[in-house]
User: What shape does this take?
Amino acid sequence: MARPDNVVDNSTSSTVGLGYSVGVGEAANFAAYAFAPATLVTPLGALSVLVSAVLSSTFLHEQLNVHGKIGCILSILGSTVMVIHAPQEEEVSSLESMAEKLKDPGFIVFAVCVLVSSLLLIFVAGPRYGQSNVLVYVLVCSAIGSLSVSCVKGLGIALKELFSGKPVLKEPLGWVLLVCLVICISIQINYLNKALDIFNTSVVTPIYYVLFTTAVMMCSAILFKEWQHMVLDNIIGTISGFLTIVSGIFLLHAFRDMPFTPDLLPLFLQQGRTDLHASWRSADRHQSCQHQPLLPSEDKGSHSTEEEEAESV
Assistant: This one.
């Protein structure tokens, strides 16, 4: 039986609306890399996981247990700490300065290490351990993702120059960054889908977030010298905020399908809970005994009748 026209229209409109929402989100994420340090933008991507969990619990009636709620709170607290102690990157306002950054020996060594390790993971470790170890494909996605974020940063600078009227389209660096970004994103999507096909999503997502964010922070620190002028307080605050977000994401995903029951409490808490319930039951029993008569009414009547018969005898 064919579906009614209104059902088709509703499903089509919902799909289009979802596509627009995803497109707007990715555009905003792209713009954030152009105006803010990557060390700050990438960890704050955990808020998208938090928002999706809250919206799913509200509108799709998916269960958000105690672990998930604690994870959401920890993600918010960690994001706040990271925003307060956000690093300041070196000013990169043109493609020429971006080209100078890319020629830095430290970044070249980092990029070579990333490419060599990714090739080893793909062609050596992948066929042997890819089906049994979740870290193989996730490491490929994370390492290549750090380079894709650098490409996004350079393209954001190119777009700012393009909107200001500079002849950016004639610069070869912008096109090179675009090609590299397409290649990196294709590799990320491919191996992330492989990891999700083999392993559970609740396992892949936290590990991928931690490794990807760590790789991006390392790449940004080397390329844009974000940590060079940070004081010790800001370094400790940034690392603490990141670890807090990691803990929240882990709680939100790893225990998503686990129901929270009193049997999961530690033994000493279960013993205290049992003693508390026992004391409540004894208190209720004692209170109910105080409100009951000493003898039932029928017993009273029978007792009085026996006394009258004894007196008459």
